[in-house]
TrEMBL record:
NCBIfam families: flgK_ends. The gene is flgK. Residues 100-330 form the Flagellar hook-associated protein FlgK helical domain. The lineage of its organism: Bacteria, Bacillati, Actinomycetota, Actinomycetes, Geodermatophilales. It comes from Geodermatophilus nigrescens. The keyword Secreted applies. Keywords: Bacterial flagellum, Cell projection, Cilium, Flagellum, Secreted. This is Flagellar hook-associated protein 1.
Length: 472
């Protein structure tokens, strides 16, 4: 064993300690960098050759330490779990936001809600039944009926606007997904080339993982690692990124809420036209477009038709101030009967033509009776167990329950997601206390290695400069 071999051992120790200090400094510098994974130096003891040369036997304990490899500290299982929980949280958040928007459209409870407008109509009918000949009472009934129709149309317009905004949100999300997928493919290429060349890829991998998390939140993407450092990204079993190639996504389907039943909005691959089964925000927004909003639009349309039919039937049973039978109160705005919440219109505008009387002039010799029996009969519609009020309350209660359940599910999921994120952070996040400990450890190791070089230098000086001087 050569004495000079000790210098090689000491130099590798110096290099390893310096490498450790460099990596520790990198971790500390990026303690607040989003998506950064802490790094560690893999130190491996270097031994002598296991195959001795001819006529050579070595029992040396030398070689030093190898500190070339710097790895990211990651837990693959926690990363996969994090992607799943992030996707679920984003999906529930989108669904809860959609239901909150529907609640805002109905404005219940509140003075501007349909329930309050219905109460005003019943109140005005009750007042008219006691004063059927008063023009002001008749005008008030028509005014409040018109306000009710306008409130129904406003609610429907708010739901339609929310549908359009949600679709625009999905369209913008698709653009972000395509951009992120293309960036992941580019990073895959760079990481593969760096891996084959033996160059470090930790920072590139961090950037790519951050994009994968973004895709998980957006469309429920799942990353599948390969042996060459590349990851494939799939959405609902369909490949979105394969190595260095990325597939574009497009939003297909109806551009308006009326076409949902025949051509529902969906995400497709472009080209190919394969329908994706997304998760994350996209899944929640697609559910809002195809299920949540159309369902409440449909129930509001049913209420509008029931409102028109109920009042038209009740009004036709009475007689106005001229003795004529009551005509149509509500229509579709064009004189037709195809009433929806979007076109519900008060057709009657003349207060004198409101059929408040319940007495047919023909039964009393042609005289016009000044009674309010039909107005009272219309007021009593509010007391029917299965009437307009009950039907509308059922709609609002169902909405409140569904929204409450969605909010509760989101809160539970946020707790689960926070726990998973904390577990991931405990593994891959930078802990300053730990880094300070490592820094002191590497500092002492460097000092010890430097002292070893000094000791070997002194030994060699004695061997070279003083050996053979005795006896001179």
């Amino acid at each position: 064993m050569s004495t000079f071999s000790g210098l090689n051992t000491a130099s590798t120790a110096l290099w390893a300690a310096q490498r450790g200090l460099d990596v520790t400094g990198q971790n500390i510098a990026n303690v607040n960098t989003a998506g950064y994974s802490r790094q560690r130096v893999d130190q491996v003891a270097m031994g002598g050759t296991a195959v001795p040369a001819v006529h050579s036997v070595s029992t040396a304990v030398d070689g030093g330490v190898n500190a070339d490899q710097v790895r990211r500290v990651r837990d693959a299982l926690l990363e996969a779990r994090g992607h799943l929980e992030t996707s679920k949280t984003a999906q529930l958040a989108a669904e809860s936001a959609a239901l909150s928007g529907v609640e805002d459209a109905f404005r219940e409870p509140g003075d501007s809600g349909i329930q309050s407008m219905l109460a005003d109509v019943w109140s005005s009918l009750s007042e008219l039944s006691g004063r059927p000949t008063t023009l002001a009472s008749r005008s008030q009934v028509l005014e409040r009926l018109d306000t009710l129709a306008d409130g129904v149309r406003t609610t429907r317009a708010s739901l339609d606007q929310q549908w359009d905004q949600t679709r625009d949100g999905v369209s913008a999300l698709v653009t972000e997904v395509n951009t992120s997928a293309a960036s992941i493919a580019e990073l895959n290429v760079a990481i593969r080339q760096a891996t084959l060349s033996g160059l470090p890829t930790n920072e590139l991998s961090d950037r790519r993982d951050a994009l994968v998390v973004k895709l998980s939140e957006a469309v429920g993407a799942v990353a599948v690692p390969r042996a060459d450092g590349v990851v494939d990204v799939t959405v609902g079993g369909t490949a979105l990124v394969a190595g260095g190639e990325a597939v574009r996504v497009r939003l297909a389907g109806s551009t308006g809420p009326d076409g949902v039943g025949t051509d529902a909005p969906r995400l497709e691959t472009d080209p190919g036209g394969t329908t994706l089964r997304p998760g994350g925000t996209a899944a929640g927004q697609i559910t809002a477009l195809t299920s949540t909003l159309p369902a409440y639009r449909g129930r509001l349309d049913e209420f509008a038709r029931s409102l028109a039919t109920t009042f038209n039937t009740a009004h036709a049973a009475g007689f106005d101030s001229t003795g004529a039978a009551g005509g149509v109160l509500f229509d579709d705005g064009a004189g037709g009967t195809a009433v929806t919440a979007a076109n519900l219109t008060l057709r009657l505008t003349d207060p004198a033509r409101f059929a408040a009387s319940g007495t047919d002039p023909a039964t009393v010799g042609g005289a016009v009776a000044a009674d309010g029996r039909n107005a009272d009969a219309m007021f009593r519609l509010s007391l029917q167990p299965g009437g307009l009020d009950a039907g509308y309350r059922e709609l609002v209660v169902a909405l409140g329950v569904q929204s409450s359940v969605a909010t509760r599910d989101l809160e539970v999921q946020q707790v689960v997601s926070a726990q998973v994120d904390a577990a991931r952070e405990s593994v891959s996040g930078v802990n300053l206390d730990e880094e300070m400990t490592n820094m002191l450890s590497f500092q002492h190791a460097y000092s010890a290695a430097a002292r070893m070089v000094s000791a070997i230098d002194q030994a060699l000086d004695t061997l070279i400069n003083r050996t053979g001087l005795v006896g001179r």
